Structure formats: C-alpha cells, structure tokens
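Predict structure. Chain length: 180.
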Amino acid sequence: MARSKLVDFVLEGEGPNLKFVEIEDMDGCSINVGESIDKGDGYTRIRVRIIEEEDWMELAREEAAQCWCDNTTKDADMDLALVEVIARKIYHWIEIAAFNDKNTDYYRGLLDECAKHLGPEVFVCDDGSISEDPLRAKIPSLVSELMTIVSCCTCIEERTRAQCAKNAAVKQSIVKGTGN
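Prediction complete.
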C-alpha cells in the first residue's frame, strides 16, 4: 500500500476568524492538491484527491487519455490500444516516483535524527527564528565543525597519552634508581 504524504493546511488568524491561506508540502512549498467546493450551505470545502497505489493505473490511463486533449492532437482519433501502452509507461514512472519518494522520506528521517545530536544551532533560521524541524542545509557545516572539535580532542588526547607515558617512564627510572 502506498504511504500517505503529509500536507499542511495553512490558516491565518485564530478561533472563528480563521482564514484559509494555502496548502503546503512537507518542505513548506505551496501546492495545488485539490479544489474549493461551495455547496451553498455557508461552508467552503477543500476537496483533496488522495491516490492510493491501487489507483495508479487508473490515474495513468487518465493522463494518457489527456494526450488527445492537447491542441496539437485534439482533432486526432483516440487509439485505445495506444492509450493503454502510454498508461503502462506512465504507471511505471509513477511507481518509480513513489519508490524514490519513499526513499527520500526515509533518508530525510535519518538526517533529521542525526541533526538532533548537532545541538540547537541546527534549528536556528538565518533570521534568528527557531524552526520546528532541523534545517538540513546546516547539517554538513555543523558536522564539519564537530569533526574539527573531535580531531582537536584526539590530538590533545594523543599528546596527553604520550606525556603520561613519558612521565611514567621517568617515575619508573627514579624508582629503580636509574633516573635523575
């Protein structure tokens, strides 16, 4: 079964004064996912089409049939066998897109999980506001800073170990009476 994508309905105002602004995808980009429906009862509805995996072939057929609605092909007779061939090709691309989308969500989740360990800076926007989600574009530079710190700590640790070993050797030679 296909996974659902999340969308945000952006509203302005509070309580009874809410006003619909737009629908955004998970990255905050405005998207057109439906249509406004007015049934004359004082309410406006936003109708959103949700496409499940079992509906992909139907969607592909609809898209293929649209090829005969183009200005350059609208006068041509529709060939149902050709519609089916085109639909199978479109279905294949829908499958690939869904697979890639699933992988994108998976790897986005891994990045977000890693980002939580990079400190609060990964949530700070350029304007100083705090984001609810990690700012993924900051991850490479924050990891680089972290690796610089780790590298410095490793150097200090190695120097400390070398100094400790040297001090232990001096102490050992003093104890044995061979040192100064």
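Summary: Residues 137-180 form one domain.
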